[in-house]
Amino acid sequence: MIVETIAFYVFAAVAVLSALLVVGNRNPVYSVLFLILTFFNVAALFVLIGAEFLAMMLVVVYVGAVAVLFLFVVMMLDINFVELRQGFVRYLPVGAVVGVILAAELIFVMTGTGLGTAAPSAPTPAIDQVTNTEALGNIMYTQYFYLFQVAGLVLLVAMMGAIVLTHRERIGVRRQRIGDQVLRDRSSVELTKVKTGQGASGGVK
Amino acid sequence: MNSFIDLNLGLARPEIFLAIAALALLVIGVSLGDRHTRIVAWASVASLVVAIVLAITDSADGLAFHGLFVADDFARFAKVLSFGAAALAIIMSLDYAEREGMARFELPLLMLLASLGMALMISANDLISLYVGLELQSLALYVVAAIRRDTVKSTEAGLKYFVLGALSSGMLLYGSSLIYGFTGSTSFSVLAASLSGEASLGLIVGIAFLCAGLAFKVSAVPFHMWTPDVYEGAPTPITAFFAAAPKVAAITLFARVLVGPFGDLVAQWQQIIIFISVASMILGAVAAIGQKNIKRLMAYSSIGNVGYALVGLASGTQEGVSGLLIYMSIYVVMTIGAFAVILAMRRRGEAVEQISDLAGLSRTQPGLAAALAIFMFSMAGIPPFAGFFGKWFVFLAAIQAGLNVVAVIGVLASVVSAFYYIRIIKVMFFDEPAEAFDRVTPTLRLVLIGTVFVISFGFIAGAPFFDLSDSAASVLFAE
Fold first, then answer.
1. Phi, psi of B347, deg, nearest 5
2. Confidence band of A114 (pLDDT split at 50, 70, 90)
3. Residue B419: pLDDT band by 50, 70, 90 thresholds?
4. Alpha carbon distance B374, B368 (integer Å)
5. φ, ψ for residue B187 (rounded to 5)?
6. Element (H, E) at B17
7. Is the pLDDT confidence value at A122 over 70?
8. How far apart are CA A90 and CA B450, in angstroms?
9. Rounded to whole angstroms, how far apart are CA atoms B232 and B229?
10. DSSP string, B28-58
11. Could you tell me if residue A115 is left (phi over 0), alpha (psi between -120 and 50 degrees) or otherwise beta?
12. What separation in angstroms does the CA of A186 have from each of A191, A195, B36?
């Protein structure tokens, strides 16, 4: 128990600290690296509360894909981060208001006042009976199988749309014609053994 | 308990067929290339026809996919209507796409996938399935609006539609999240069973946001701003598609959401619907007067028509929803017909779309002029054309529900709108003739003859059709 508590405080403290450094750092590459550190610590927190599937997803999706994408953007594109930072003080009041509203909502939810639900929501299966992955799989591929399929169709439409709206047939491009390549017979090529030091022309004569 | 049979896949036969057909046609289209767009387009039309047949022949009701999907008479009625409209729009887009050099096999496929999205919307029985169906449909529509990516107007239409559509999706999602937060469920069945007369403030705000999102999709005032620009900018057959099929899907979804899970809260949402329907009727009538471009005129006309259809929903009764279904059926036929005439407006190979271009059409092409005149009389609500009966049933339902003021405003708005509908007839029959249009293509001619026939003689088949719409509407009110 005590080990868990210590682990929680360590991971939580590092997560908060590195999150602050993400916004506070001058060098954007460092910011992205601190973001990755934050993700790892949050993943560890997920493991602590028994959500191992979410933890793995966080590492695979966010660290493996999103953070690397960020890193690419930061390093490949010429973005002036000093310029982006200007006006920070000017927008601070607006940001503070949004932050206060969010904090108020969190407190509102945590104290649980004012939310009278009319219908009972579906019970969550007990954690010692079903593993995370199994429970999520049950929801995704059994109960919400239909939504999963339709979401796939939506993605298909998105892909078709991107191709329809941006793909242009380029004229005069030399393409590989696999059929011709495979059907080529021996008469169209000449294979010669080349002796060391003589070169191709020396061998044929 | 979690067996495959529990999914009840049989209830979703039209949708499953459409999804597989779209995927198969995509592969065929990619391997054949853009030169064979015609094959893909006709195959898409054929799949829609098969889907209609599947929808009609299957009369089993029930829930599928663990309660996320519902099949009933109401859904079948709306599906047949929107599939039919989509099929006609694909047929009309064929000649146009070839003449304008925008023939791409993806166009009919995206329209097919949009129709699939509409079917999923119509059959939604959960807030999440509502949203994914809506997004499937909308995403395909954004792309087809911008399909002529080299013209400024089309890309502008696509971008505008996309940005405002994303905004409305956000509102819809926010509303859904509030409803979930204050009730604890997203399922329509659970919501219908657990909600009764009293509603918490959060739930009402949620319903209001949900209504705002859906009102955007049906282009009702005050969420109509995108309509004229998108309708004008998108290629004409695409505009015909926008004005017909998605409207049916969105408005039936509107009716299913409000009458189904929130049926007991009718006093709460009735005011919202009354306001947007009255505002749409008035704006549709007044703003169309000054229009010179016939596509913009049709955009305002469709805003007005949605207002009339929503009068049926505002009454909140079975007669009202039945009237809404009748109104939308007639509206779809009128709209497809009117757009077929607009598509026929070509001079020396160039499409023209000003109302003044129609001058003297009765002398150069009497058939075309007569067809447009019939559609305009029908939209103005003049008997014996079908449009009159659509208005009759929604206003009758409103008066029976005690909404006399709404009905009176509706009648006055339709008198105002008759002014611009009949002005078109005046331009065609009494103005000096302009140069004649090009010959009408055979497919368009066929569409025109069919729609004129339905609008002029549809009242003969009235009684069985009203029974059909009534039994469809009764599903929503069955407890």
1. -120, 120
2. low
3. very high
4. 10
5. -80, 135
6. helix B13-32
7. no
8. 64
9. 5
10. HHHHH-GGGHHHHHHHHHHHHHHHHHHHHH-
11. beta
12. 9, 22, 37
Residue closest to B284 by CA, chosen among B231, B323, B336, B210: B231
What is the rounded average pLDDT of the residues A101-126?
Answer: 69
Amino acid at A192: T
Question: What ipTM score was computed for the predicted complex, to two decimals?
Answer: 0.92
Which has more confidence, A110 or A100? A100
Report the alpha-carbon distance of residue B311 to residue B307 in Å, rounded: 6
Nearest Cα of chain A lies from the Cα of B33 at a distance, in angstroms, of: 12
Distance in angstroms (rounded) separating the CA atoms of residues B17 and B10: 11
Q: What global pTM score does this model have? A: 0.87
- Contact indicator for A153, B113 with CB cutoff of 8 Å: yes
Per-residue b/e over B251-279, b at no fewer than 16 CB within 10 Å? bbbbbbbbbbbbbebbebbbebbbbbbbb
Q: Chain A interface, mutation test: which of B126, B154, B185, most A Cβ atoms within 10 Å?
A: B185
In this predicted structure, the answer to whether residue A203 has a pLDDT above a threshold of 60 is: no
Alpha helices in chain A (DSSP H): 2-24, 28-48, 52-57, 68-76, 81-85, 88-111, 132-138, 145-166, 178-183, 199-204
Report how far residue B91's alpha carbon sits from residue B319's, in angstroms, rounded to the nearest whole number.
34
- CA max distance for chain B: 74
Q: How far apart are the C-alpha atoms of B98 and B343, rounded to whole Å?
A: 13
pLDDT value for A205: 46
Both tokens of B204, joined, read 């009402």
Q: How far apart are CA B190 and CA B262, in angstroms?
A: 11
What DSSP line would sit under B249-301, residue for residue? Answer: HHHHHHHHHHHTTTGGGHHHHHHHHHHHHHHHHHHHHHHTTT--BHHHHHHHH
Query: Cβ separation of B194 and A142 shorter than 8 Å?
Result: no
Instruction: Point out the residue among B132, B143, B195 whose CB comes nearest to the CB of A151.
Output: B132
Instruction: For residues B308 and B329, give the distance between their C-alpha atoms in angstroms, rounded to a whole number.
Output: 13
Residue B184 is nearest to which of A119, A138, A145, comparing CB atoms?
A: A119
* Residue in the structure block whose two tokens are 């061998």: A203
Cross-chain residue pair B19–A144, CB shorter than 8 Å: no
Helical residues (DSSP H) of B101-187, grouped into ranges? 106-122, 127-145, 152-183
**Of B276, B309, B336, which Cα lies nearest the Cα of B473?**
B309
The β-bridge relationship of strands B62-64 and B69-71 is antiparallel
Q: Are B109 and B115 in contact (CB under 8 A)?
A: no
